[in-house]
Write a structure and sequence with these properties.
The complex is a heterodimer of chains A (336) and B (335). Chain A is α/β, with parallel strands linked by helices. In chain A, 41% of the residues lie in helices and 28% in strands. In chain A, strand 1 and strand 2 form a beta hairpin. The longest helix of chain A has 24 residues. Chain A is globular. Chain A starts with a helix and ends with a helix. Chain B is an all-alpha fold and 335 residues long. Chain B is 73% helix and 0% strand. Chain B has 14 helices and no strands. The chains are: A alpha/beta (336), B mainly alpha (335).
Chain lengths: 336, 335
């Protein structure tokens, strides 16, 4: 009786949705496949929102998604998704999560409508609801008249949008997107990013796994960087983008040629320039004085001098390099 | 909205409907599987012979009904010959055929089901291989296992799909033939006689669906190329039947007739089928001389051998496809 009541209480609590604003949490999560460690003591709390999941091939991104969906049991540690334990409530989690795989995953012989309807039925929707939602999400992803054509005939962009539709059809609270812009042309990519951004605004949490860092930078508020199954970095992108120690942007008024010349004389490298602004590299940290001296000599007035922030790609590469550097001595010791 | 915002005119609308926990997802899989296969005209054409089998069996019952009425008359000789040609039973010396109706009908079904087993061989080779292989080829498994579907639910949905076609090829024609035969023969006593037979036909149909369905699922889970699955299926079914011929020639009859059933799965199913229909006891109690019905009976094999073979094959096939699907489920995010 007590166990039944406890199970009912848990089910009701879990159906109410996330009690706090957390997308998922991992506590010392480890997953081993034989001798290979895919996830190594991963501990992180990821808040709701649009979050990027970055990492090189073999970093453990797909394994993490698999564990979060409850498809794979972790070797040790714990994980919670939408405040539900992945071990005990994997089916409840999957009811509220939408997954867009990297590969096509289209069922041969099905039209776009048939495919999304089928996915809706697999997600537990009744016939009427499934049909209604199918057309709603196909309208949303703009597969208008094409929805009645066999899905195999779709272009790469249409296939990606169809895959997004199937992930959305049961209106999940969390979307796991694996390379959603893969193989898309620039316009299609923008469309997909706009859709994901809109979904984030509609209150759906999105975990975006991608190798295309500009895409992540464009729509994600936060990122989680993985490398060799370990967390390299995580947090708000804007906060993570550190000011560059020597690279600055200068806004000025006055003759450009003379100013650039004076800067070079003071060993300041001019990286690029456009109307009224220059991107420069100082000879050393805290050498901004050289810029003001060059401006005085060239007769230009400085309107702004901002240290440049590193891009997501630079941050990512720095994190990878740091991990490799940290691991090298250990590897050497192990070999010795 | 960004510059790409024109693609959708309205923002995403949340939905507040009810999502069930996937209790009926197998039904969705079944309906989708049936629709996909029936959409292909060649598959529909392949299902037509099952109607032919049903008509043939019903015609047989009609002829037996005529024989009951014409028994002893010289006009019945042609019908006696017809029955003998197919059932290998000489019933011309039987006084009242109505008294042996039950065993005669069982003989008809035994004969029909042997043809149906061969027909199922082709039907399954055509419709079964794509069940899991196509999902593997299209890498479609993540759409199942990212939803509240367990490997068992997935297998259940797939098995039901092929089981429906196996039923359409065997159980449904048999039951319809029984129904029409009963209608043609008429009378409440006929209904009482045929009710038990319907149950036995159901058991045979279920056994065929279990063995055939699980075996083709197991083969289908091994590769993403359905052609290999079809070839594998035909090899598993036909090669042992050829080997059986060699065994029958090399081993003494004492061995093959007592404990060694059949090397082929359809052969073992046939032995069990005949045992279930109880033809031997039926004809022996008919009072006919043994030589009048001996040709209609199969080898008197101990049913334990085919029962063990079929059970082991079904169990192994079930375990194999479950393990494979479990593996796919765990790797779904990487597929």
């Amino acid at each position: 009786m007590y166990l039944y009541a406890a199970a009912q209480f848990r089910a009701v609590r879990e159906n109410l949705g996330p009690s706090n604003n957390v997308m998922f949490t991992c506590d010392n999560l480890t997953k081993r496949y034989g001798r290979v460690t895919a996830l190594n003591g991963l501990t992180l709390d990821v808040e709701a929102g649009v979050v990027g999941l970055l990492g090189p091939n073999g970093a453990g991104k797909s394994t993490l998604i698999s564990v979060l969906l409850g498809q794979t049991q972790a070797s040790s540690g714990a994980a919670r998704v939408l405040d539900m334990d992945v071990r005990r409530s994997s089916r409840r989690i999957r009811r509220r999560v939408g997954f867009m795989p990297e590969n096509d995953c289209l069922i041969p012989g099905m039209t776009g409508t048939g495919y999304v309807y089928y996915c809706a039925r697999l997600g537990g929707l009744s016939h009427g609801d499934a049909m209604q939602r199918t057309h709603e999400v196909l309208d949303y992803v703009a597969l208008d008249e094409a929805r009645y054509r066999p899905a195999e005939q779709y272009s790469a962009g249409m296939k990606q949008r169809l895959k997004l539709a199937q992930a959305l059809v049961h209106d999940p609270d969390l979307l796991l997107l694996d390379e959603p812009t893969n193989g898309m042309d620039p316009h299609g990519r923008l469309v997909m990013l706009a859709l994901i951004e809109d979904l984030g605004n509609a209150g759906i949490s999105v975990l975006l796994s991608s190798h295309l860092l500009p895409d992540v930078e464009r729509i994600c508020q936060r990122v989680v960087m993985l490398g060799a199954g370990e967390m390299l970095a995580s947090g708000n992108i804007d906060e993570m983008r550190r000011p560059h120690p020597t690279r600055c942007a200068v806004n000025y008024v006055g003759p450009a040629d003379g100013f650039a010349q004076r800067l070079r004389e003071r060993r300041v490298e001019v990286l690029s320039g456009s109307n009224g602004s220059l991107e420069i590299e100082l000879p050393a940290e805290n050498e901004q004085r050289s810029v003001f001296e060059a401006a005085r000599d060239a007769g230009v007035s400085i309107r702004g001098l901002h240290p440049q922030r590193s891009s997501l790609e630079e941050m990512f590469m720095a994190a990878i390099r740091k991990q490799q550097k940290d691991h090298k001595p250990q590897d050497g010791a192990r070999q010795a | 909205m960004s510059d790409a915002g024109t693609i959708h005119s309205q923002r995403y609308q949340r939905w507040s409907g009810k999502r069930r926990l996937g209790r009926w997802t197998w039904a969705a899989m079944l309906i989708s599987g049936l629709k996909l296969r029936i959409r292909d005209a060649r598959n529909v054409v392949l299902l037509i012979p099952s109607a032919g089998l049903m008509i043939a069996a019903a015609t047989f019952f009609y002829i037996l009904m005529l024989l009951e009425q014409l028994a002893g008359s010289p006009r019945a000789q042609g019908l006696y010959d017809f029955v003998f040609n197919f059932l290998r039973v000489d019933v011309s010396s039987v006084g009242s055929l109505a008294a042996f109706r039950s065993v005669l009908w069982r003989s008809v079904f035994s004969f029909m089901m042997k043809i149906e087993l061969f027909y199922l061989l082709i039907l399954i080779a055509r419709l079964g291989p794509s069940l899991i292989a196509d999902d593997l080829k299209a890498r479609a498994l993540p759409i199942y296992f990212a939803r509240p579907i367990t490997p068992l639910t997935y297998l259940w949905g797939k098995w039901l799909t092929i089981a429906v076609f196996i039923a359409l090829g065997m159980l449904v024609p048999n039951l319809l033939a029984l129904f029409f035969g009963t209608l043609l023969t008429g009378g409440l006593p006929t209904w009482a006689e045929t009710l038990g037979l319907a149950l036995k036909l159901g058991v045979v149909g279920l056994a065929a669906a279990l063995v055939g369905g699980l075996l083709i699922l197991a083969l289908s889970s091994l590769t993403s190329d359905k052609r290999f699955v079809a070839v594998g299926w035909l090899a598993v079914m036909l090669l042992p039947a050829l080997a059986q011929r060699i065994v029958n020639k090399t081993l003494s009859e004492d061995v093959t007739n007592t404990w060694l059933g059949s090397l082929s799965l359809p052969g073992n199913l046939t032995i069990l089928m005949d045992r279930l229909l109880d033809l031997r006891a039926g004809w022996e109690s008919s009072g006919l001389p043994a030589e009048a019905f001996q040709a209609a009976l199969g080898r008197p094999v101990d049913p334990m051998y085919p029962l063990i073979v079929l059970s082991v094959v079904t169990l192994c096939a079930g375990l194999l496809c479950y393990r494979r699907v479990l593996r796919f489920c765990r790797a779904a995010a990487n597929l």
